[in-house]
Each structure stands twice: as C-alpha cells, then as structure tokens.
Write a structure and sequence with these properties.
Length: 337
C-alpha cells in the first residue's frame, strides 16, 4: 500500500491521491472549469466523492502541488493556481493556507484527459461507491511532462521533466513508424545550462554566474530544484560569516545584494579582487556550488498491469506508453457503417 501511494503509474503519471483529485474535478463537470473553488473546499469534496481515507490536510497539499507553476515544479499544471501557491523562493513551501487560495480545472487538462476515453476506463469501487479508475489514459505521458519523485517500501522513483513539444513530436514520429529522437530533461523557466555527463542518462545542471567587475559577481540562475532561500542559507551566509570571523577564509564575500522576484534569481556578491581571482581559478560554479545532478537511472513506475517496473531509458518508457495508449484509440473509434 505504501508503494501504491508513493509511486505513480507510467500511463497517467499520477499517484492515487492525485488521481482522486482529478476524478472529483471531472465529476463536478463544467462548473469546475468556469468557477474557482477554495482549495480547502475541494479537498472536502474529493474526500467525500472518491473515498479518500487519509487526512484532508495532505489532500490539500497535493492539490497545491498539482497547481504549482514555478521553475522546477510542473511543466503543465493540471490545476489552475489562483492565489499564492508557492514560488521558487522556497520551492513551493511558501504557499498560503488552503483556506485562502482557489483553483479550477483548466480546459487544457480536460483535453489531455479526453472525455471520450472515460467510457473505456476501469473504474474502481470502494464499499459500493464508484470511485476513480485504476489509471487514466491521457494523450501525453504526463509522467515525462511533469516528472515524478517518490519513496516507497523497498522502491523509490525519480523521473525528470521533459519538454511537452518534444514528446508530441516523438509520438508523431512513432505514429509514422520512425524511431523517437533523443530527449533531454527540460524545465519550464529554467535559464541555466543542462549537460549530459556520461551518455548513460546522467545530467548536470548549471546555474548562471557572471563577473560584473574585478570584485563583483552576479548569480542570475540556480541549478534545477535549488531554491533561492535554501541557497542563501547554505552557500551565501557561510561565505559572509567567513569574512566576519577571525579566521578569514580566502573565499569570503564582503557584501550581498538580493534583487529576486518570485520567478527570477539575482544575488550580487561583493568580494576582494584576490578572492574573485582565486574563485575564478577554482571555477565559479564549483566554489559557489552552482551545480546539481539529474539521473534517469531510477525511473520506477507501475505499468498497466499494476506491476512495478524500472524503465532503463526515456525511450523505453515512451515506447511502452505508445503501445498501451494505442488500443484505447482504436476502441473509441466509431464502428464502420
């Protein structure tokens, strides 16, 4: 049961809690697309109509996560964020209370999960109540679009985000019986660099740093999933403290100016010329800890039979989705006259 809640399905990229939320949103009908609803109220509705047996607090947290749009979260948010749903300053932890924020179902979500496929789904039952299906069949593999992370019992999963346009292009290539083109992770709004390490699915992401003058550097982007406040506390403040201590480090900064917004990063660091020369010699990205790693070696997901399966490559995951998604299209076609 722990793995079921922690590891998503390869087909819809959803964990059971997320699937229950979508099911409840679809059940509310067109009103959910037109009118915003308070997150706390939606959590209550989901709990009532989809037999959710856990706390509404965790359900509200899941709704917030599905609506987040900051860099490093969702490439395509399945719910609309009306209010403070969290920013890259704290990786979404700065979201307001569910009592004060609203959401609705974007039209795009209903296009991804097309209503014509609903009659083909295997809806589950809980104590005589019809609840969400065992999995949805969206038109895109959302597990690649928005990525996934989870830790269960004996299993964990980590899937990076990919560019929806590249995924669409590859699905069209496969329909033309051509092999899919190689894809690399992509995060909406990320302006740094992402480079493959070994050709085996490992990547390094780099923030952006530039020299302004002989004693000033500007950090204008952080690595993927490195949050502004965390970076300030773990990297910037120790460098400032080093300058103030008696044992002054050769890698100490004398002043920092912050000009962030909720979508951009801007640290202006002041230091002596000798410090900047030494940092430059060692590598600015290394000394300012502006790198992070992404791996595709642990893409563990449930398949359409409910079995846990580890996909070795993005290519293999995309092919599996393609092969399983094709039959529902054929079933939903009208019978020839």
């Amino acid at each position: 049961a722990d793995n079921l809640r922690s590891i998503p399905s390869m087909l819809d990229g959803l964990k059971p809690g997320q699937r229950k939320i979508l099911f409840a949103c679809f059940k509310r009908g067109k009103g959910m697309i037109k009118n915003e609803v308070k997150v706390a109220q939606l959590a209550g509705y989901v709990s009532e109509h989809s037999a959710y047996h856990h706390g509404e607090t965790s359900l509200a947290g899941t709704i917030v996560g599905m609506a987040q749009t900051h860099t490093g979260s969702n490439n395509i948010a399945l719910l609309y964020p009306a209010g403070q749903f969290g920013t890259r300053l704290m990786g979404g932890k700065d979201a307001a209370s569910p009592r004060y924020i609203f959401t609705r179902l974007p039209k795009l979500t209903r296009l991804l999960f097309h209503p014509d496929d609903d009659c083909l789904l295997n809806f589950l039952e809980d104590d005589g109540q019809s609840i969400e299906p065992s999995y949805y069949v969206p038109i895109l593999p959302l597990v690649l679009v928005n990525g996934a992370d989870g830790i269960g019992t004996g299993w964990s999963t980590s899937v990076p985000n990919y560019n929806p346009r590249e995924i669409v292009a590859n699905l069209r290539r496969m329909m033309d019986e051509l092999p899919p083109a190689p894809m690399h992770p992509w995060y909406r709004g990320f302006t740094g660099q992402l480079a493959p390490v070994d050709g085996k699915g490992a990547y390094t992401t780099y923030g952006t740093v530039s020299k302004v003058d002989a004693g000033t550097v500007l950090v204008s982007e952080l690595p993927v999933k490195t949050w502004t406040q965390t970076y300030k506390e773990s990297v910037i403040e120790p460098l400032l403290a080093a300058a103030a201590s008696d044992k002054a480090s050769e890698l100490a900064i004398t002043d920092v100016r912050e000009h962030h917004t909720d979508t951009t990063v801007s640290f202006t660091l002041k230091m002596s010329e000798s410090t900047l020369t030494e940092m430059d010699k060692r590598g600015l990205h290394k000394t300012l800890k502006l790198t992070s790693s992404i791996a595709t070696s642990n893409m563990t997901l449930f398949d359409d039979q409910g079995r846990i399966f580890r996909y070795e490559t993005v290519d293999a995951l995309l092919r599996s989705f393609f092969e399983i998604r094709l039959p529902p299209y054929q079933k939903s076609k009208p019978a020839p006259p």
